[in-house]
Amino acid sequence: MNMMSGKMLLGIAVGLVAGTAIGILFAPESGVETRKKLVKRATDYASGFKDRIGEWAENNLLQLAPGNARRGNSLPEPLSKSQQTKLEDMQTA
Question: Quick one: average pLDDT of 2-31?
Answer without folding.
Answer: 83
